[in-house]
Amino acid sequence: MAAFNKATFVNSAWFSRSKFHHYAAFSQARFDGDAEFKDAMFEGYAIFDRCKFSRVTVFDGAHFMRAAEFGRAVFGTGRRTWKTLFRRSRFTGECMFASATFKGAACFDEAVFDDRATFDSAEFLQDCSFDKAAFGGTMNFDSAEFARAITFAGARIISSSSEHTVPTGWRLNFEEDEGTLVRTPTALEESRES
């Protein structure tokens, strides 16, 4: 078990290509520098709830084999707005970003969510993308807030569950057993088309 609960990482923290065999606990940890978990493998539960990530946060290519908890985490708490990257990450177990705050751009491009993906009440204060992401379980964006653009270009919904909640301005379009997210035109856009 790796336990870093309430730890403070004053400089950059490098966990790239690390393999956490059991429970990885970072609950309420504070990362004052960059936090890099690129290509990390989490075989047990990954707990990052209520973490504060001050600068660039990289989980590109990380694999979460059990549940991943990022509830109430704050990404980009520093003076500038920093990116949060989960490109090509795989969430085999449930992932929870409930009430998380992304102060900088957030990128989940090509991420795979095999189980439930929960982003309810999350705040995205800059651009956010889920381009080419795949959702195999239920996705939940109930009460999520998006201050800027959000994109789902080429995203796939593999589960036809009726429990999906999508961001305002988007709808699910299912053909056979697979679906895509389609942006709903605004009233102004619809009036221009007429």
Can you give me a brief rundown of this structure?
The chain has 194 residues and is mainly beta.
Describe this structure in words.
This protein has 194 residues and is mostly beta strands. The chain has one domain (2-193). Helices cover 4% and strands 35% of the residues. The chain has 1 helix and 30 strands. It has one helix spanning 187-193; strands at residues 2-3, 8-9, 13-14, 19-20, 24-25, 30-31, 35-36, 41-42, 46-47, 52-53, 57-58, 63-64, 68-69, 74-75, 84-85, 90-91, 95-96, 101-102, 106-107, 112-113, 117-118, 123-124, 128-129, 134-135, 139-140, 145-146, 150-151, 156-157, 170-175, 178-183. The chain has a 9-stranded mixed sheet, with no helix packed on it. A 7-stranded parallel sheet has the order 1-5-9-13-17-21-25, with no helix packed on it. The chain has a 7-stranded parallel sheet with strand order 2-6-10-14-18-22-26, with no helix packed on it. A hairpin with a 2-residue loop joins strand 29 (170-175) and strand 30 (178-183). It is globular and about 45 Å long. The mean pLDDT is 88.
